[in-house]
Amino acid sequence: MRLPKIRELVEAITALVKGPYTSRFPYAPHEPAKRFRGKPEYSNEGCIACAACALVCPARAIEFRDAVTKEKATRKMVLHLDECHYCGQCSALCTTRDDNPPGIRHTTKFDLAGFDRREMVSTTDEKELALCESCGDVIAAKAHLDWVARKLGPLAFSNPTLFLSSLEEMGIAEGLARTARDYALRSDRIKILCAKCKRKATLERY
Ligand code: SF4
Ligand code: SF4
Predict the structure, then answer these.
(1) Going by CATH, does the domain composed of 40-125 fall within 3.30.70.3270?
(2) Is the preceding peptide bond at 160 cis, omega within 30 degrees of 0?
(3) Rounded to an integer, what distance in angstroms lies between the CA atom of residue 42 and that of residue 115?
(4) pTM as predicted
(5) 98-133 pLDDT, tens per residue?
């Protein structure tokens, strides 16, 4: 019993000389450790709206909002900080985690209390979606398709959806394959298609 008492005494004397171990926040600014997992923040530049972070979030604190109308189709990522556990899964498993900047990362911001839960969010801008030219279903965000095409390099040319969306991104594919004669270019396959329609086009023609 004597040893712990001596240890506590040493701690008390050290604290008297050096000051308390705890910070004086909120009376003085607090600088968290470098690897502290604070507020997760999206990067508009780095996020490709693939929604992988929403799938791996154990707290289901992330949602993706798709808005599909006749005029436009977009996706926005929304992270609800009031539901977040700050576990780090979203940034650790983000598809673009090795890019600079990554899609999402933890900042060291920690003083996040507020009165309105609707304001406790981290969001991306709206990202354009690619829709299936046959059935109109959402395929993926265009930024996601471009990212995959960049990763694949020349191999992307073997996939009509990636190939065409890359050409469209460059502004040189508009109407190219769609006006091709059916039997010359298999125009039913040379389209931006979802997996279901691509399978249908492949299996039902031959
Ligand atoms: S790029 Fe990263 S942050 Fe953006 S949606 Fe995909 S997983 Fe989430
Ligand atoms: S830190 Fe964890 S709980 Fe918070 S949004 Fe990311 S995955 Fe979800």
Answers:
(1) yes
(2) no
(3) 22
(4) 0.79
(5) 999 999 999 999 999 999 999 999 999 999 999 988
pLDDT in tens, 134-177: 888 999 999 999 999 889 888 877 777 777 777 777 776 665 55
Ligand 1 pocket check: which of 45, 60, 96 to mutate, most ligand atoms within 8 Å of Cβ? Answer: 96
Residue 54 token pair: 């929403």
Out of 41, 85, 122, mutate this one to test ligand 2's pocket (max ligand atoms within 8 Å of CB): namely 85
Name the residue ranges covered by the structural domains of the chain: 40-125, 130-205
Residue nearest to atom 4 of ligand 1 (CA): 47
- The atom number, within ligand 1, closest to the CA of 52 reads 7
